[in-house]
Amino acid sequence: MGVQEQYSFDVEALRADFPVLDRKVGGDPESPGEGPGDDTPLVYLDNAATSHTPDPVVDTVADYYRSYNANVHRGIHQLSQEASVAYEEAHDTVADFVGAAGREEIVFTKNTTEAMNLVAYAWGLEELGPGDNVVLTEMEHHASLVTWQQIGKRTGADVRFVDVTDEGRLDMDDAADLIDDDTQMVSVVHVSNTLGTINPIGELADLAHDHDAYVFADGAQSVPNRAVDVKELGVDFFAFSAHKMCGPTGIGALYGREEILDSMQPYLYGGDMIRRVSFEDSTWEDLPWKFEAGTPSIAQGIGFAAAIEYLEEIGMDRVEAHEDLLAEYAHDELTALGGVEIYGPPGDDRGGLVAFNVEGVHAHDLSSILNDYGIAVRAGDHCTQPLHDEMGVAATARASFYLYNTIEEIDALVEAVGEARDLFA
Amino acid sequence: MGVQEQYSFDVEALRADFPVLDRKVGGDPESPGEGPGDDTPLVYLDNAATSHTPDPVVDTVADYYRSYNANVHRGIHQLSQEASVAYEEAHDTVADFVGAAGREEIVFTKNTTEAMNLVAYAWGLEELGPGDNVVLTEMEHHASLVTWQQIGKRTGADVRFVDVTDEGRLDMDDAADLIDDDTQMVSVVHVSNTLGTINPIGELADLAHDHDAYVFADGAQSVPNRAVDVKELGVDFFAFSAHKMCGPTGIGALYGREEILDSMQPYLYGGDMIRRVSFEDSTWEDLPWKFEAGTPSIAQGIGFAAAIEYLEEIGMDRVEAHEDLLAEYAHDELTALGGVEIYGPPGDDRGGLVAFNVEGVHAHDLSSILNDYGIAVRAGDHCTQPLHDEMGVAATARASFYLYNTIEEIDALVEAVGEARDLFA
Amino acid sequence: MGLGSDMYRQQILDHYKNPRNYGELEEPDFTHVGENPSCGDTIQMDVGLDEAGETIESVRFNGDGCAISMASASMLSERLHGMAVEELHEMDTDDVTEMLGVDISPMRVKCAVLGRQVAQDGSKIHRDELDPDDRTITEE
Amino acid sequence: MGLGSDMYRQQILDHYKNPRNYGELEEPDFTHVGENPSCGDTIQMDVGLDEAGETIESVRFNGDGCAISMASASMLSERLHGMAVEELHEMDTDDVTEMLGVDISPMRVKCAVLGRQVAQDGSKIHRDELDPDDRTITEE
Ligand SMILES: Cc1ncc(COP(=O)(O)O)c(C=O)c1O
Ligand SMILES: Cc1ncc(COP(=O)(O)O)c(C=O)c1O
């Protein structure tokens, strides 16, 4: 194809770090990890759901358990010192990666979803009330949509949704209408996990700040793929998950501006987040520990930092270039195939994923058939049910790319989609 | 000593599964995992803070990443099927282990602390109000003490503390006085992480149920060490953490009786916990998924099940016998040493830990000195500050044991404590 | 190829493209609707019984969904003709896959059994064994 | 042996067991209390200055805590005699460990520096450079 020559780094060499990419599929799914019962090589295009984890990250996690496993923060013994330093410095690594001022602005959470809930509970439940409103978009992931919807119900605050245009972009006129002086929070997805749209966070932040509202950008699909600087974006809160960016499951981060986090009451209560406790009352630890109650996800936090170091070694600009290349190629080839409807903006202006439907083929059938070809895509509503309702479809198939995916894998996808189309014709 | 002959399993052979036990300490704590700068063998007696993780568990986690890493629940492709089956079955394994009816009664949380907060938020914030009360004990861990204290403040409910006797036991007469018809919840630690006391959960559950109150037992220090059956205990809620029982960090479990969990509103909102979402409202998934929002801690959940299988292979009765042996031996030897004050019940009636102070030596100094001998103990308030205030000390040193600890390690502890005592004499 | 391809044998595709007994009964003895939310599948089953109420005499189904759920409902609608209601109640997942004649991959079983579940639940409601407010949902 | 043992050299133990300048000043120019919550260490420093307010003339400390924090406060109280206030303000962690003459393991640094921090914060409050409501806490 000659497209490989455009790769911004040595993709084939990098694939060696991901043994799961050598999986053959077709085995007995009831016996995971027991190896293939078939010879179909895996083509993994479900990276927006979760990315794979390279050996250096898996090894970092294993090394924690094998060399210096201990509880953090309060131990005087050496293992605890080592674990504490590594866990606390992981916050610095994450902070640096997204341009936060320091560890005091980075709270480790379970995932993006918990980060959203943390702010909804610790800030929203306290600050919102009847007459206030929270502005979302029609393309929000359930992580923010359901959370603010339910917090709205509990506090009496109104929840509004910025329209999505036919091209899959935010209607910024509608945004300007909806965001008003009663708006307390604008919660918006940075890169849509269904449409691939890259939203104009800076503009939305300006709109929100003009009305003294906060902005929470959901970076679950942006941080894995592009260089992000929260200060440049001008957001007040930002969240992302390690498992979508070469990191372990079970860990994510909330960025919050220090003044705001400082003014917020705690969210989870327990050990490690307190300063003094009596039977009557308690006082709280400094940031970010105030928001990390109980034994934290130590191994996963350390693994998160290792994932960031892995990505930084490649360079986020190169990762983004690779995603752009694959997304545009997939968009073009699926379009050329015919009988395929693709959702969202054009191929040269989107994050690294393509959601589509094939005429006459239900997305779940399509996904089953692609699975027979070893191709892993996601079929469903991708946690954006209301957006799917707006698009008038129950489900879409979504192919999403990451740094180890290749042009050949997209060729395999396109060919298999063609076969499915013909099967149902 | 001859005491080894009383071991209920081959402790030396088992230690081979825990490479961290071969650590030498004295190296540079700023460079974790880079190996020792000294030759002092590690004696790890900080298991109540966190236990070590055996190779079979570490390998299970690594194998997930290397062989079938994928997001769960909704994927049709094979990796997602494999990951889903393994993650969902991990709930069954945990349910079986503690005698729950099935996966619908087991919610995976970050840790014990989050499990407590889940109930405090999803049940407590809704159900508690002025006039109600929650009964705790003076020996509660901050995980429950601070949580109910703060939920009490937010709802207007009264929070009461059952007295601890001089011998470190619950004053059951006081419990009978405090638990009344306005009591909605009795939240009590099963095995105290400071005193080692094994509390009479069954009796407390009867008291609570006589007054139509729920019982939440904190099993963080009991499940790792003894066979637990939540139905036999008669509790309504129960919680524990994998990292204290050979499992990964970042995962724990909440047991809740199905009828109660079913009647509760969700806690965290987002993907995977919903059935239908519109812009206006949402409906919820079945148990336990209703309480697991967002991408779960998949690798850690699978690792949790592997830890349970590891423990079951040894047998929980044997684990308990080993803990009893070590706790009694340590209690006796430290008592015999002289100049040591030990907190809590006698040596033959306690969980596998001993908290103590040496006359004239601050616990932090003691811990520093023990660290020089390679001995890792915890010094501080062990997240029971109010209990320490009651005991009239700012801090205690705590040695806590697990299945890989030996009589020789306790001998080393006792000898080093003696040296510290003499140094300060 | 793995399990899935097998799922789209000619017979399945034929039933999907040309569903049998598609539509509604004018005077069904019972009618019931169920869904499989994760796929967005929805199926309605209309059933007519004999005088004794023991044997199924007529069946129509309609709805929207993936090939597996639609083909399975279509094949079921043929199978149910003349079947004793008792026998319907005894149909389990194995009977459905046997009827389909293909291996169903685990994540698609809920699609395959939707039609059967709707028919069973409809009959149970008809017999007052199930609360009519209970919705039929095939999802674990 | 590692870092820690070194911490309990004779000099440290001597200052711990026989603290110098222990007590309170009758008329201090400033007095301040600080704590290290995780250890439960609490230290009060009373300081008297010369007429110009530039040189430290008298120091007393009291409190409760581990050997490192107490010995460090005791040694500091000796060192401060006759020291320029400016010099006190310039003291950093290295100066404290140098004064102690031993390596301080990372988790104990907050104990070692508590006395110095209390003295510095007290002086800053005296100079109106710090809000008197700010508590002195040595914990990262
Ligand atoms: C009795 C008790 N409860 C609760 C906890 C909290 O556990 P985690 O930190 O895993 O949430 C602990 C451990 O620190 C404990 O010992
Ligand atoms: C845009 C977006 N937001 C939020 C999430 C939720 O992330 P997590 O499941 O890791 O909490 C996802 C991924 O599923 C996503 O794509």
TrEMBL record, chains A, B:
Aminotransferase class V domain residues: 43-413
Entry EC no(s): 2.8.1.7
UniProt superkingdom: Archaea
Region of interest: Disordered: 22-41
Keywords per UniProt: Aminotransferase, Pyridoxal phosphate, Transferase
Reported cofactor(s): pyridoxal 5'-phosphate
Reaction it catalyzes: (sulfur carrier)-H + L-cysteine = (sulfur carrier)-SH + L-alanine
GO biological process, one term: cysteine metabolic process
Keyword Transferase annotated: yes
Spans through the membrane: none
GO molecular function: cysteine desulfurase activity; pyridoxal phosphate binding; transaminase activity
CDD domains found in the cross-reference section: SufS_like (cd06453)
Similarity comment: Belongs to the class-V pyridoxal-phosphate-dependent aminotransferase family. Csd subfamily.
Free-text function comment from the UniProt entry: Catalyzes the removal of elemental sulfur and selenium atoms from L-cysteine, L-cystine, L-selenocysteine, and L-selenocystine to produce L-alanine.
Protein name per UniProt: Cysteine desulfurase
Organism: Halorubrum yunnanense
Taxonomic lineage of the native organism: Archaea, Methanobacteriati, Methanobacteriota, Stenosarchaea group, Halobacteria
TrEMBL record, chains C, D:
Protein name: Fe-S cluster assembly sulfur transfer protein SufU
Residue ranges annotated for the NIF system FeS cluster assembly NifU N-terminal domain, each copy included: 7-122
InterPro entries to which the protein is assigned, alphabetical: NIF_FeS_clus_asmbl_NifU_N
CDD domains: IscU_like
Sequence segments annotated as region (Disordered): 121-140
Comp. bias (Basic and acidic residues): 123-140
SUPFAM superfamilies to which the protein is assigned, alphabetical: SufE/NifU
Annotated organism of origin: Halorubrum yunnanense
Gene3D superfamilies documented for this protein: 3.90.1010.10
Gene this protein is translated from: sufU
Lineage: Archaea, Methanobacteriati, Methanobacteriota, Stenosarchaea group, Halobacteria
